[in-house]
Amino acid sequence: DPQITWRRRNHWIVLAFVPSSLLLGVTTHISTDIAATPLLWVIPLTLYLLTFVFVFARKKILEHAWMVTAQPFLMILVAILLWTNMTFSLWYLLLVLVSFFVTSMVCHGELVLRRPDAEGLTQFYLCLSFGGMLGGVFNALIAPVLFDNVMEYPLVLALACMLRPILSTEDKTLILPDILLPLGILAVYSAPKVLFDLHAIEFGSVGIAVYLAVLITFVFACRLRPIRFGLSIGVLLAVMAMVPKAGNILVTERGYFGVNRVSIDSTEKFTLLYHGNTLHGAQYRDKEKRRDPLAYYQKEGPLGQVFQALSGTNQIKSVGVVGLGAGAAACYRTPGQTWTFYEIDPIVIRLAKDTRYFHYLSDCAPDAKIVQGDARISLRSVPHQKLDLL
Q: What is the C-alpha to C-alpha distance for residues 241 and 233, in angstroms, rounded to an integer?
């Protein structure tokens, strides 16, 4: 169609927005919830750029129809596993990356199929660039304000499914059933939890299998209708989010550096501090034991060995600690020592000082100085040889 309407431009923008947002959402998800590995962000960025190479190539390497066919299977698997403890596995990491690649291929493939003639290409590429920029703005600036968790990732997954081509022979204007059917299944699945605090997990493995089998069958049957399928994936994500998790979450806070969560473990013996899925601190809830450093700060570990080797000497008067966590290292402080913590995340500082959750600082080093900022920069202003131990 030679005519370029605003509806067509908006479609281009949204098709470019989704892969860009998913790029950042996937990167945040895998680097905080799966593996805090340096340079892991290079992989999704490479896959994102490769999708442009493949869809705009003169000779098709990967057929668009293959990507459209594979997408529902991958989306359903990701939706099922997203809120489970299986997110720690290498297979889940590969699944997330492959589903991101395929979804980006579908969106960018639809963009190529909707390219205008040469006269309209300037508008087309401008809309493509603008959509990519909006994806970055949404994830980097808007989502951290709106959500206390990485909710933008599952939300955009559902939106991506709505941008699939219509494969059904039904009336394309049949919108009402596309909305009502997913809402109906959500009501049916959430009613036991909301009304009776009852979940399929209480009926054992057989109950869970039947519970999921019916839901997955419904979601898969909706794949030919994009709006219906996208909303159904949203329902699947919501249902899986309702599955009871081990432990009791006390508070979740999100900032520039990611998501911090304080929870009580399933045995109710420890208070835990997580950044994403990485444990950064733990403390006994028992008042008699709460001064004992735990996790990798324990007395049998390297940090404990250092202070044990230096005990009984007067060599250590000033100690600097890079990274506060829950403040467990503070309980190695001895009378007469001056301690300074260097911590970049203001949320971590606030949680470690809050005696509703942790008592390491209040019990062991209430007068310790905490310097907020990047320690590599903060330490430049420290006089030479002021710290006896860092």
A: 12
